[in-house]
Amino acid sequence: MRNDLELDAIIEDYLLGKLNAQETEALEQLRRNDATVDHKVVSHKFFLESMGIFAEQLRLKDQLNEIHSEIDVEGLASTLRPHPSRVVQLWRKHKSAIAVAASFIVLSLVSIYSIQHNTKQAERYRQLSNQVNNAIKTQNSLIRKIKHNNTTSDKPNIQNSFGGTGFAISTNGYILTNLHIINGADSLYVQNSKGESFKVKSVYTDPQNDIAILKINDKHFSNLSSIPYTIKRTTSNIGEIVYTLGYPKDDAVLGEGYVSSKNGFIGDTTQYQVAISVNPGNSGGPILDNNGNLVGIISGKPDQTEGAAFAIKSKYILEAMRAIPQDSLGVNKLSVNKKSLLSGLKRTKQIEKIQDYVFMIKAY
Protein backbone atom coordinates (compact mmCIF):
# COMPACT_ATOMS: atom_id res chain seq x y z
CA MET A 1 0.00 0.00 0.00
CA ARG A 2 2.79 2.37 0.93
CA ASN A 3 4.63 1.64 -2.32
CA ASP A 4 1.47 2.46 -4.30
CA LEU A 5 1.08 5.77 -2.47
CA GLU A 6 4.72 6.63 -3.07
CA LEU A 7 4.37 5.75 -6.77
CA ASP A 8 1.23 7.93 -7.03
CA ALA A 9 3.12 10.84 -5.46
CA ILE A 10 6.02 10.39 -7.91
CA ILE A 11 3.60 10.24 -10.86
CA GLU A 12 1.92 13.46 -9.76
CA ASP A 13 5.29 15.21 -9.41
CA TYR A 14 6.21 13.90 -12.86
CA LEU A 15 3.03 15.28 -14.44
CA LEU A 16 3.53 18.63 -12.68
CA GLY A 17 7.14 18.86 -13.90
CA LYS A 18 8.67 18.64 -10.42
CA LEU A 19 11.08 15.75 -11.12
CA ASN A 20 14.66 16.31 -12.21
CA ALA A 21 15.96 14.92 -15.50
CA GLN A 22 17.30 11.71 -13.96
CA GLU A 23 14.07 10.98 -12.07
CA THR A 24 12.00 11.76 -15.16
CA GLU A 25 14.02 9.36 -17.30
CA ALA A 26 13.73 6.64 -14.65
CA LEU A 27 9.92 6.93 -14.54
CA GLU A 28 9.61 7.01 -18.33
CA GLN A 29 11.74 3.87 -18.54
CA LEU A 30 9.43 2.24 -15.98
CA ARG A 31 6.41 3.23 -18.08
CA ARG A 32 7.92 1.59 -21.15
CA ASN A 33 8.59 -1.64 -19.26
CA ASP A 34 5.45 -1.84 -17.10
CA ALA A 35 2.03 -1.37 -18.70
CA THR A 36 0.41 -1.02 -15.25
CA VAL A 37 2.57 1.98 -14.42
CA ASP A 38 1.89 3.51 -17.83
CA HIS A 39 -1.84 3.12 -17.24
CA LYS A 40 -1.48 4.81 -13.83
CA VAL A 41 0.28 7.78 -15.43
CA VAL A 42 -2.32 8.19 -18.16
CA SER A 43 -5.22 7.83 -15.71
CA HIS A 44 -3.70 10.35 -13.29
CA LYS A 45 -3.14 12.82 -16.12
CA PHE A 46 -6.79 12.51 -17.12
CA PHE A 47 -7.79 13.05 -13.47
CA LEU A 48 -5.70 16.23 -13.22
CA GLU A 49 -7.15 17.54 -16.49
CA SER A 50 -10.70 16.79 -15.28
CA MET A 51 -10.03 18.68 -12.07
CA GLY A 52 -8.71 21.60 -14.12
CA ILE A 53 -11.89 21.64 -16.24
CA PHE A 54 -14.02 21.55 -13.07
CA ALA A 55 -12.06 24.48 -11.59
CA GLU A 56 -12.51 26.44 -14.83
CA GLN A 57 -16.27 25.85 -14.70
CA LEU A 58 -16.39 27.15 -11.13
CA ARG A 59 -14.42 30.23 -12.20
CA LEU A 60 -16.87 30.93 -15.05
CA LYS A 61 -19.82 30.47 -12.69
CA ASP A 62 -18.33 33.00 -10.25
CA GLN A 63 -17.80 35.46 -13.12
CA LEU A 64 -21.41 35.01 -14.22
CA ASN A 65 -22.70 35.71 -10.71
CA GLU A 66 -20.47 38.77 -10.41
CA ILE A 67 -21.65 40.23 -13.74
CA HIS A 68 -25.32 39.66 -13.01
CA SER A 69 -24.97 41.28 -9.58
CA GLU A 70 -23.61 44.43 -11.26
CA ILE A 71 -26.38 44.77 -13.85
CA ASP A 72 -29.56 46.59 -12.76
CA VAL A 73 -31.99 45.52 -15.48
CA GLU A 74 -34.88 47.69 -14.20
CA GLY A 75 -32.62 50.72 -13.89
CA LEU A 76 -31.32 50.24 -17.39
CA ALA A 77 -34.83 50.51 -18.82
CA SER A 78 -35.26 54.06 -17.49
CA THR A 79 -31.72 55.49 -17.56
CA LEU A 80 -29.88 53.94 -20.48
CA ARG A 81 -29.29 56.24 -23.47
CA PRO A 82 -28.00 55.09 -26.86
CA HIS A 83 -24.33 55.95 -26.26
CA PRO A 84 -22.12 53.22 -27.72
CA SER A 85 -19.20 54.20 -25.49
CA ARG A 86 -21.04 52.88 -22.42
CA VAL A 87 -21.74 49.60 -24.18
CA VAL A 88 -18.14 49.28 -25.32
CA GLN A 89 -16.95 49.78 -21.73
CA LEU A 90 -19.15 46.92 -20.56
CA TRP A 91 -17.91 44.76 -23.44
CA ARG A 92 -14.25 45.34 -22.61
CA LYS A 93 -14.82 44.69 -18.93
CA HIS A 94 -16.72 41.43 -19.33
CA LYS A 95 -15.68 39.98 -22.69
CA SER A 96 -13.92 36.98 -21.15
CA ALA A 97 -17.03 35.72 -19.37
CA ILE A 98 -19.38 33.10 -20.73
CA ALA A 99 -22.41 35.31 -19.98
CA VAL A 100 -21.29 38.25 -22.13
CA ALA A 101 -23.66 37.44 -24.97
CA ALA A 102 -26.70 37.38 -22.70
CA SER A 103 -25.64 40.68 -21.10
CA PHE A 104 -25.41 42.47 -24.43
CA ILE A 105 -28.74 41.08 -25.60
CA VAL A 106 -30.38 42.71 -22.55
CA LEU A 107 -28.71 46.04 -23.33
CA SER A 108 -29.66 45.88 -27.00
CA LEU A 109 -33.32 45.08 -26.33
CA VAL A 110 -33.68 47.95 -23.85
CA SER A 111 -32.19 50.38 -26.40
CA ILE A 112 -34.45 49.45 -29.35
CA TYR A 113 -36.90 52.30 -28.80
CA SER A 114 -34.17 54.96 -28.74
CA ILE A 115 -32.45 53.47 -31.78
CA GLN A 116 -35.63 53.83 -33.83
CA HIS A 117 -35.59 57.58 -33.14
CA ASN A 118 -31.92 58.13 -33.86
CA THR A 119 -31.06 57.08 -37.40
CA LYS A 120 -27.52 58.43 -37.20
CA GLN A 121 -26.67 55.91 -34.48
CA ALA A 122 -28.53 52.99 -36.06
CA GLU A 123 -25.47 51.88 -38.01
CA ARG A 124 -23.37 51.84 -34.86
CA TYR A 125 -25.89 49.55 -33.18
CA ARG A 126 -25.96 47.30 -36.22
CA GLN A 127 -22.22 46.83 -35.77
CA LEU A 128 -22.82 46.14 -32.08
CA SER A 129 -25.41 43.53 -33.04
CA ASN A 130 -22.81 41.78 -35.17
CA GLN A 131 -20.49 41.73 -32.17
CA VAL A 132 -23.27 40.21 -30.07
CA ASN A 133 -23.87 37.48 -32.66
CA ASN A 134 -20.16 36.65 -32.74
CA ALA A 135 -20.11 36.54 -28.95
CA ILE A 136 -23.08 34.16 -28.96
CA LYS A 137 -21.29 31.83 -31.39
CA THR A 138 -18.19 31.83 -29.16
CA GLN A 139 -20.34 31.19 -26.10
CA ASN A 140 -22.15 28.26 -27.74
CA SER A 141 -18.84 26.75 -28.82
CA LEU A 142 -17.54 26.94 -25.24
CA ILE A 143 -20.76 25.44 -23.88
CA ARG A 144 -20.51 22.51 -26.34
CA LYS A 145 -16.94 21.84 -25.17
CA ILE A 146 -17.98 21.93 -21.52
CA LYS A 147 -20.94 19.62 -22.23
CA HIS A 148 -18.63 17.20 -24.06
CA ASN A 149 -16.19 17.13 -21.11
CA ASN A 150 -19.08 16.55 -18.69
CA THR A 151 -20.67 13.74 -20.69
CA THR A 152 -17.49 11.88 -21.59
CA SER A 153 -16.69 11.33 -17.92
CA ASP A 154 -19.91 9.29 -17.70
CA LYS A 155 -19.26 7.18 -20.78
CA PRO A 156 -18.99 3.44 -20.36
CA ASN A 157 -15.99 1.31 -19.55
CA ILE A 158 -12.92 1.73 -17.38
CA GLN A 159 -12.92 4.60 -14.87
CA ASN A 160 -10.93 7.69 -15.98
CA SER A 161 -11.50 6.87 -19.64
CA PHE A 162 -13.76 8.34 -22.28
CA GLY A 163 -14.76 7.12 -25.70
CA GLY A 164 -17.50 5.92 -27.98
CA THR A 165 -17.96 3.45 -30.84
CA GLY A 166 -16.07 2.49 -34.00
CA PHE A 167 -16.40 -0.13 -36.72
CA ALA A 168 -14.09 -2.15 -38.93
CA ILE A 169 -13.39 -1.03 -42.50
CA SER A 170 -10.87 -3.80 -43.20
CA THR A 171 -10.17 -7.31 -41.99
CA ASN A 172 -6.69 -6.44 -40.69
CA GLY A 173 -7.65 -3.94 -38.00
CA TYR A 174 -8.52 -0.58 -39.53
CA ILE A 175 -11.31 1.03 -37.46
CA LEU A 176 -13.31 4.13 -38.36
CA THR A 177 -14.74 6.46 -35.68
CA ASN A 178 -15.33 10.16 -34.85
CA LEU A 179 -12.32 12.43 -34.44
CA HIS A 180 -13.85 14.17 -31.41
CA ILE A 181 -13.78 10.85 -29.51
CA ILE A 182 -9.99 10.50 -29.64
CA ASN A 183 -8.89 14.16 -29.63
CA GLY A 184 -6.33 14.85 -26.90
CA ALA A 185 -5.95 11.21 -25.86
CA ASP A 186 -2.56 9.79 -24.85
CA SER A 187 -3.53 6.15 -25.27
CA LEU A 188 -6.16 4.49 -27.45
CA TYR A 189 -7.73 1.04 -27.19
CA VAL A 190 -10.64 -0.79 -28.79
CA GLN A 191 -12.70 -3.52 -27.17
CA ASN A 192 -14.61 -6.14 -29.16
CA SER A 193 -17.90 -7.86 -28.37
CA LYS A 194 -16.03 -10.59 -26.47
CA GLY A 195 -14.51 -8.08 -24.07
CA GLU A 196 -11.00 -8.29 -25.55
CA SER A 197 -9.05 -5.02 -25.65
CA PHE A 198 -6.41 -4.09 -28.23
CA LYS A 199 -3.99 -1.18 -28.46
CA VAL A 200 -4.63 1.10 -31.48
CA LYS A 201 -3.04 4.16 -33.04
CA SER A 202 -4.50 6.96 -35.12
CA VAL A 203 -3.41 6.79 -38.77
CA TYR A 204 -5.70 9.37 -40.39
CA THR A 205 -7.89 12.28 -39.27
CA ASP A 206 -10.37 14.50 -41.11
CA PRO A 207 -11.23 17.44 -38.81
CA GLN A 208 -13.67 18.96 -41.29
CA ASN A 209 -15.91 15.88 -41.28
CA ASP A 210 -15.09 14.65 -37.73
CA ILE A 211 -13.65 11.35 -38.98
CA ALA A 212 -10.68 9.37 -37.68
CA ILE A 213 -9.23 6.05 -38.82
CA LEU A 214 -7.43 3.89 -36.26
CA LYS A 215 -5.22 0.83 -36.76
CA ILE A 216 -5.05 -2.04 -34.28
CA ASN A 217 -1.41 -2.38 -33.29
CA ASP A 218 -1.50 -5.44 -31.06
CA LYS A 219 0.15 -8.83 -31.50
CA HIS A 220 -2.83 -10.55 -29.86
CA PHE A 221 -5.25 -9.37 -32.57
CA SER A 222 -6.29 -11.90 -35.21
CA ASN A 223 -7.59 -10.74 -38.59
CA LEU A 224 -11.35 -10.63 -39.02
CA SER A 225 -13.36 -12.54 -41.59
CA SER A 226 -14.79 -10.73 -44.61
CA ILE A 227 -16.54 -7.47 -43.74
CA PRO A 228 -20.29 -8.31 -43.92
CA TYR A 229 -21.55 -4.81 -44.87
CA THR A 230 -20.77 -2.62 -47.84
CA ILE A 231 -20.55 1.18 -47.96
CA LYS A 232 -23.40 2.87 -49.77
CA ARG A 233 -22.32 5.11 -52.67
CA THR A 234 -25.69 6.80 -53.22
CA THR A 235 -27.75 9.16 -51.05
CA SER A 236 -30.42 7.70 -48.78
CA ASN A 237 -33.98 8.96 -48.97
CA ILE A 238 -36.15 10.49 -46.26
CA GLY A 239 -38.13 7.75 -44.53
CA GLU A 240 -35.56 5.03 -45.25
CA ILE A 241 -35.38 2.56 -42.33
CA VAL A 242 -31.94 2.48 -40.65
CA TYR A 243 -30.37 1.14 -37.47
CA THR A 244 -27.19 1.50 -35.45
CA LEU A 245 -25.19 -0.68 -33.06
CA GLY A 246 -23.06 1.13 -30.49
CA TYR A 247 -21.68 1.35 -26.97
CA PRO A 248 -23.53 3.92 -24.84
CA LYS A 249 -22.84 1.44 -22.01
CA ASP A 250 -20.63 -1.62 -21.42
CA ASP A 251 -22.45 -3.86 -23.87
CA ALA A 252 -23.67 -3.20 -27.41
CA VAL A 253 -27.05 -1.47 -27.81
CA LEU A 254 -29.29 -1.52 -30.89
CA GLY A 255 -31.04 1.65 -32.02
CA GLU A 256 -33.64 1.68 -34.81
CA GLY A 257 -35.30 4.50 -36.74
CA TYR A 258 -35.34 6.21 -40.12
CA VAL A 259 -33.71 9.01 -42.11
CA SER A 260 -35.70 12.13 -41.13
CA SER A 261 -33.77 14.72 -43.18
CA LYS A 262 -31.16 14.71 -45.92
CA ASN A 263 -29.33 17.52 -44.14
CA GLY A 264 -27.86 17.75 -40.68
CA PHE A 265 -27.17 20.54 -38.20
CA ILE A 266 -28.20 23.97 -39.62
CA GLY A 267 -28.61 22.48 -43.10
CA ASP A 268 -25.23 20.73 -43.15
CA THR A 269 -25.22 18.74 -46.42
CA THR A 270 -22.45 16.40 -45.22
CA GLN A 271 -24.85 14.86 -42.69
CA TYR A 272 -28.23 13.19 -42.37
CA GLN A 273 -30.62 13.69 -39.51
CA VAL A 274 -31.92 10.33 -38.32
CA ALA A 275 -34.78 9.56 -35.95
CA ILE A 276 -32.82 7.35 -33.57
CA SER A 277 -32.37 7.87 -29.83
CA VAL A 278 -28.63 7.98 -29.03
CA ASN A 279 -26.34 8.69 -26.07
CA PRO A 280 -22.72 9.98 -25.95
CA GLY A 281 -21.19 6.50 -26.34
CA ASN A 282 -23.04 5.99 -29.64
CA SER A 283 -20.78 8.53 -31.38
CA GLY A 284 -18.75 6.84 -34.10
CA GLY A 285 -21.24 3.98 -34.51
CA PRO A 286 -22.35 2.74 -37.95
CA ILE A 287 -25.74 3.53 -39.49
CA LEU A 288 -26.97 0.72 -41.76
CA ASP A 289 -30.08 0.21 -43.90
CA ASN A 290 -32.20 -2.95 -44.08
CA ASN A 291 -29.93 -4.46 -46.74
CA GLY A 292 -26.78 -4.04 -44.66
CA ASN A 293 -25.43 -1.05 -46.56
CA LEU A 294 -23.46 1.43 -44.44
CA VAL A 295 -25.19 4.80 -44.97
CA GLY A 296 -23.38 6.88 -42.35
CA ILE A 297 -21.70 7.25 -38.96
CA ILE A 298 -23.28 8.73 -35.81
CA SER A 299 -21.61 12.06 -35.03
CA GLY A 300 -23.85 13.82 -32.48
CA LYS A 301 -27.35 14.85 -31.52
CA PRO A 302 -29.35 18.11 -31.46
CA ASP A 303 -29.37 19.92 -28.11
CA GLN A 304 -32.52 19.29 -26.06
CA THR A 305 -33.98 17.06 -28.77
CA GLU A 306 -34.71 13.46 -27.85
CA GLY A 307 -34.96 10.70 -30.43
CA ALA A 308 -32.81 12.41 -33.06
CA ALA A 309 -29.17 12.27 -34.15
CA PHE A 310 -26.85 13.48 -36.88
CA ALA A 311 -24.89 11.06 -39.06
CA ILE A 312 -21.98 11.78 -41.41
CA LYS A 313 -22.87 10.50 -44.89
CA SER A 314 -21.14 7.41 -46.30
CA LYS A 315 -19.59 9.48 -49.11
CA TYR A 316 -17.15 10.98 -46.63
CA ILE A 317 -16.27 7.57 -45.19
CA LEU A 318 -15.19 6.51 -48.70
CA GLU A 319 -13.17 9.72 -49.11
CA ALA A 320 -11.36 9.09 -45.81
CA MET A 321 -10.50 5.53 -46.83
CA ARG A 322 -9.13 6.72 -50.19
CA ALA A 323 -7.03 9.39 -48.46
CA ILE A 324 -4.75 6.79 -46.83
CA PRO A 325 -1.77 6.01 -49.12
CA GLN A 326 -2.41 2.50 -50.40
CA ASP A 327 1.30 1.63 -50.49
CA SER A 328 1.37 2.03 -46.69
CA LEU A 329 -1.22 -0.72 -46.24
CA GLY A 330 0.78 -3.67 -47.59
CA VAL A 331 -1.25 -6.47 -49.12
CA ASN A 332 -4.42 -5.57 -47.21
CA LYS A 333 -5.86 -2.68 -49.19
CA LEU A 334 -8.86 -0.74 -47.87
CA SER A 335 -11.39 -1.99 -50.40
CA VAL A 336 -15.19 -1.86 -50.30
CA ASN A 337 -17.35 -4.95 -50.72
CA LYS A 338 -19.47 -4.81 -53.86
CA LYS A 339 -22.29 -6.75 -52.21
CA SER A 340 -23.54 -6.83 -48.64
CA LEU A 341 -23.54 -10.22 -46.91
CA LEU A 342 -26.46 -9.00 -44.76
CA SER A 343 -28.96 -8.52 -47.57
CA GLY A 344 -32.13 -10.60 -47.12
CA LEU A 345 -31.37 -11.52 -43.51
CA LYS A 346 -33.64 -10.77 -40.56
CA ARG A 347 -32.47 -8.00 -38.22
CA THR A 348 -31.42 -10.45 -35.49
CA LYS A 349 -29.21 -12.35 -37.94
CA GLN A 350 -27.72 -9.10 -39.26
CA ILE A 351 -26.78 -8.07 -35.70
CA GLU A 352 -25.16 -11.46 -35.08
CA LYS A 353 -22.97 -10.97 -38.15
CA ILE A 354 -21.90 -7.36 -37.52
CA GLN A 355 -21.35 -7.41 -33.75
CA ASP A 356 -17.76 -8.67 -34.14
CA TYR A 357 -17.01 -5.69 -36.40
CA VAL A 358 -18.29 -2.97 -34.05
CA PHE A 359 -15.91 -1.88 -31.28
CA MET A 360 -15.98 0.19 -28.14
CA ILE A 361 -13.40 2.99 -28.36
CA LYS A 362 -11.50 3.73 -25.13
CA ALA A 363 -9.42 6.91 -25.04
CA TYR A 364 -7.18 7.81 -22.06
Automatic annotation (TrEMBL):
Keywords: Hydrolase, Protease. Gene3D superfamilies: Trypsin-like serine proteases. GO terms for molecular function: serine-type endopeptidase activity. It comes from the Bacteria. One of its GO terms (biological process) is proteolysis. This is Serine protease. It comes from Pedobacter psychrodurus.
